[in-house]
Automatic annotation (TrEMBL), chains A, B, C, D:
This is Argininosuccinate synthase. L-aspartate binds at T119, N123, D124. It is found in: Cytoplasm. ATP binds at A8, Y9, S10, G11, G12, L13, D14, T15, S16, G117. Belongs to the argininosuccinate synthase family. Type 1 subfamily. Homotetramer. It comes from Thermasporomyces composti. Gene3D superfamilies: Argininosuccinate synthetase, chain A, domain 2, HUPs, Single helix bin. The keyword Nucleotide-binding applies. The keyword ATP-binding applies.
Length: 398, 398, 398, 398
């Protein structure tokens, strides 16, 4: 039986060319698989037809936007996942979902190989291949761009030679990846760390320095997930999309940073993630109100490890599952309303209220009604500082 | 010999009244000690005279602004110290310095007791008393406000009765603490978590939503410390002060959060720390460029613990010293320039350059000159994912 | 209605006297509650009758040995819980269970106060009171030994004066606490750190230096819990008891250490916990075989925090619940057999076998059948070391 | 000029053959470099002559035993370095030292390549190559066994064909690596996890189950380093060697475990490290006496990371340097005596005394002289448990 290869297909030049090229080189039948995670652009049907026109024996297209929001963005929100305290893991979140559909397609269509178009110096190759290894350890992986040193020039020549229905003239000076959780821009003049980003590289966000009216929004969470915006019920996808629009219109969520890639190099990355940043900002403050101190302190370590793991391609790892159990338990009481003002590039929390609040007005107030027994403090302070005091007696003697 | 008490003196109503009150209650001589950490307000000489007029046998005033910037703010900057990822430890940093001068004053003037005016439900009592215990374990501590349940009403009555030279009519609805690293505002209507802060509570920062021209600044760091601003040499104190002015004028550094106090309750706090936030923002990005990945990842845990320790009053603890050793070593190469735009409440890094950079253009670029050997990636990815893959074989079987 | 106090009752002198004393001092009715966690000694009925004879209006006795093993010791085993890497949390585990029964008794009998006999410098007062606060925040706590400075002398006098049916002559020179998970011995000549423990202080373990025949045992685990010993099904309680006997007979599980108490002091503690140490030893090695590397590495941090939390009296805390979720997930595949030799004070693992093993003979062997593709290593090593190499180029230049 | 290769030379079959083979294959001149880290066996002069006889143009031999003990074993002791809580990093510690001498030899003799004989599935290839990359990023690395798929059979054939002065008949069924810090045994029948080790695989330790007289020893530490044994001054090397002898004679320090290799597989390893285990046991307990609680708790995390880093080949990494700074500071007061009994495979601490002790008899004792103010406890306990209590009120309501 002819071997079959499932190719992660975007509809763009590189992966369109890859269909025929893989077939030529390996004699295999190629099945294109395109997954919509909210990257926008062409509709799935157009992409499906192009894949077939380029020689795919099958073309599978999946609208996975809700699944992505539910099963990938919501856990990231619960983890306040910010790699290096900044990057909300835009691409890193979509890869495991795409892998899941590639593997399902391979099983359904009897393929033994999965192919992707990543280069050999980025993080995405790791996320694809480690993901495939974890979901279907018996599938082989083909990475033609990396392992056969493809170039854009070769791809254009191939496309023209074979008359592929793909526009070879459009070429962004940047490498861009986007989905509903955000948008990543790299390469081009950004490779010089002293160059500031220019306004035209952004697409999800407006210029935050342009004066405009602020936008006030109330996000309601249940167990760490947004369930209402301004009182209207929303799905996770709707919550992200609405906040992408509203926070994006105020220039919220632009990031510009030097980042540590898993393959050992530093790279310059620019992101825009208005919905993600607005939601994480709100979620963190609701946790401040509803999560007990020791749990909150330890959760920061869990959050950091979670973000590193996912960045490093280990979504489908045993540690990730155990961290998720911790996080799920931590979200039990993260329920309530956060009011934010979106304006001038900032998402600023201005109010919080929650039935699950651990803020106790009567213990906190310095006003009438103060219920805090200050006489307890002396003993507390004395024993809290006792180890330091005993050490000081020793150290001052020395 | 008459017992002597060193009182942490601010010049305000409560501690002015405390001078006489302590003398009355204990028969001790009171020595007032006022430390300038950049809190502004009256000059030290005025404060000194008032202490004497209120009955102090000695009044010691110390301009500790440079010491505070050098020895307390700079380590906090190296640690990117943000308690709960937000609060730059404004009050928590000044307390150990004030304690240091109280203890020195006690030694110089033969006092056996140190007194402070903190209440029993805040963090500062802990910082004062644990600090005293660590620097001078034999000194006793007196906390009249906490242990004798003082009230403002009693203080006013006492001041009027004794004709103390202090204005008893001024009363902020808020509790405020400020120094060169920032300003803290609490109580009043802020005790209702749903109330937004109003513009008049701020003093270090302008309204970020007012349109104005952006301000671009270049901060030069050496081993993690700011040494130049726009090319002009600065001391740590000058760096903070200049950025307080420039970042404050753009509304940078306002924070509004619910915070976990050491005494076990949650409280609402508003801060403004324009210089601190601008410096930390710049410093973090310079670290992204100059600090190796594994070191950067572990340093985040060290930073969190450092901030918790200092917040929790353990500045003079053995763990703090060991964490400082780690951090000092980590700053060895944190040298270079960061360009930022201050505008609309945001401090945005737009450029970085460093002789110590670990960013290697030739390894990072996707352009000509790419020196990264992509053939290495396949083996890396395979072994990186091997534990997940082996686990997957087991788990899928189950 | 007369107030009612539930007293944690042991049957010994101090708590027998406390019954009448509390009644005298407070006018309340005292309900004695004794919980059997495997401490041995008198039977529950004898204890119950003594409580009534001493003046209790009710005496509740609970055989909680199985509950203790199931719900307290098994989670500790899953966590490999060793405070300071040594102490298996003997007393720290039983306190929350006792608290649970005190609270239940208080609810059932309409009591508004819980009383315990702990001193003010140990850990147990914290475990009792924090536990009560977490299970029944409205109950008050009475700690007569601590808050009214009781002494043994006063207790004896009271007992003799009131003719209480309790032997006042027996007096161990040590303070001892024991349950099925182990036994703690402190005070007496052990307070001198240079004194070695003597043989007569031990009760669960034989002298390990006496020559005797080794004992080989096979423990079978399912999801981290012992389910069979030498092929015979056991409950958790039976597993601990059988290993207490067999490992104890070989002198396994003696510990002698200086320990950091929560109240800020160091103390000398001697423990014997033959079953606990044997089980933890076996469990750790089974985890080595069945738990993936990254999960195992992070779990060590979780284990340390878990042990600290439980030691520090925070069994019923939100963080503890979240850590338990992590641990439960981590145990999913900790299933298999561990063969150990118990001998001469050592529990030595000599064999492991598991259907869930992640050890892959074909990948590990250097013999025929080696399936490891060594050609992958070069790329892995190169990229693994790349951050160090790039840093070295910078550092060597400097 | 002819290229020169520095080969890590052991004197054994594989590396003796490698001399000629590398010369043949690459046309380079081979310089053999043998480093004595206490592995025993032939003397350095014999090894040096064999290298020359096998065709090396130079043969450099280095007695690095003291350097190894001072600069590699002592930091490991300060870190209580036990990978996976068990393995004292025997081989992992020697590799960076050997690399240091290889690199120095390469510089001295103008070599541009370093060669080692490691396979592609172990950890040592990583330690060699990452180490070389960190000390001399411009040197190339050659790994003939891994990259050219050498086998023992080919090596024997080559040796016989070329008449090399090396005995090809001796063949251990095990793979062994040893140095003064310990000895590692793997492969052979140990690859079956159910097989127990047999007595003949051990060399540093006697059978612990044979009855013999106990041996009592007093180790004196200064700042975490052993400086005297039974009152007699020792160098670090002497301390390790003497305890290897004395603890080894009592069967102390045998380990048998399944271990997570960096390359992603699990392997079975048996170790014996009598001196290392005895020293770490003593050092840990001296830390219990002299290190403050919070520092001790955080140091455990540092220790774990330190052991992982060194195991993973990152001795010369920026993070390692920063962790060392932390650890050095932590050892400031780790000074004093530990008395241990070595017997029956166990090193048991029986006494500790230190001028730097933080154990305060007067605070700890329950006897006369008790200086602990128990009245402080109530307030401490109440505020310590307040977050749990507030959370409980919320959770019980839900």
């Amino acid at each position: 039986m002819t071997e079959r290869v499932v190719l992660a297909y975007s509809g763009g030049l590189d992966t369109s060319v890859a269909i025929g090229w893989i077939a030529d080189q390996t004699g295999a039948e190629v099945i294109a698989c395109a997954v919509d995670v909210g990257q926008g652009g062409e509709d799935l049907e157009t992409i499906r037809k192009r894949a077939l026109a380029c020689g795919a024996v099958e073309a599978v297209v999946v609208d996975a936007k809700d699944e992505f929001a539910e099963d990938y963005c919501m856990p990231a929100l619960a983890a306040n996942a910010l790699y290096m305290d900044r990057y909300p893991l835009v691409s890193a979140l979509s890869r495991p979902l795409i892998v899941k559909h590639l593997v399902a397609t391979a099983k359904e269509h009897g393929a033994s190989v999965v192919a992707h178009g990543c280069t050999g110096k980025g993080n995405d190759q790791v996320r694809f291949e480690v993901g495939v290894g974890a979901l279907a350890p018996d599938l082989k992986v083909l990475a033609p761009v990396r392992d056969f040193a493809w170039t854009r020039e070769k791809a254009i020549a191939y496309a023209e030679e074979h008359g592929l229905p793909i526009d070879v003239t459009k070429k962004s000076p940047f490498s861009i990846d986007q989905n509903v959780w955000g948008r990543a821009i790299e390469t081009g003049f950004l490779e010089d760390l002293w160059n500031a980003p220019t306004e035209e590289i952004y697409s999800y966000t407006q210029d935050p320095s342009v004066p405009r009216e602020p936008d006030e929004v109330i996000v309601t969470f249940e167990r760490g997930r947004p369930v209402k915006i301004d009182g209207h019920p929303v799905t996770p996808l709707q919550a992200i999309q609405q906040l992408n629009r509203r926070a994006g219109a105020q220039g919220v969520g632009r990031l510009d940073m030097v980042e540590d890639r898993l393959v050992g190099i530093k790279s310059r990355e620019v992101y825009e993630a208005p919905g993600a940043i607005a939601l994480i900002t709100a979620h963190q403050e609701l946790e401040n109100v509803t999560v007990e101190r020791d749990l909150a302190r330890f959760k920061r370590q869990v959050e950091q490890r979670w973000a590193e793991l996912v960045y490093d391609g280990l979504w489908y790892s045993p540690l990730k599952r155990a961290l998720d159990s911790f996080i799920t338990t931590s979200q039990e009481h993260v329920t309530g309303d956060i009011r934010m003002v979106l304006h001038g590039g900032r998402a600023v929390v201005t109010g919080r209220r929650s039935e699950s609040s651990l803020y106790d007005f009567n213990l906190a107030t310095y006003d009438e009604g103060d219920a805090f027994d200050q006489s307890l403090a002396r003993g507390f302070v004395e024993l809290w500082g006792l180890p330091s005091k005993i050490a000081a007696k020793r150290d001052l003697r020395a």
